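Cross-check.
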Amino acid sequence: MSKSDPSDNARINLLDDKDTIVQKVRRARTDAELLPETVDGLAGRAEADNLVGLYAALSGVTKAAVLGEFAGQGFGAFKPRLADLMAEVVAPIGDEMRRLMNDPAEIDRVFLAGAERAREVSEPVVEEVKRIVGFWGPGR
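Predicted model, tokenized:
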């Protein structure tokens, strides 16, 4: 998986559905070696290190913990588990993005609410800065 590779199959896009995610992960480039017992064993194995890193990030554990679970196994066992995990985590993001893209009024509502909150938070700071630099504000 590589964000710099021009092929769409080399990355997981946020709008990919579950089936596409699973397909892309299963086709991800790997090597023939088994997964090592330690993180040091990933040195020089960019594809393996990348996939183990993705699994770790998506599951909220360290690479060492991932290797503790999968050490000595091949990618035939690891990649389906990674594919399922990635589909479980990433696919709902795409689902929500598609929902929002089909509801521009909801996006506008969220933006307006965010702008109002930003104004509320920043107003006291802006007023204090104006006072410090000598600008006259309303009622002064």
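The CA atoms of residues 115 and 121 lie 10 Å apart. The mean pLDDT is 91. Passed to J.P. for a second look.
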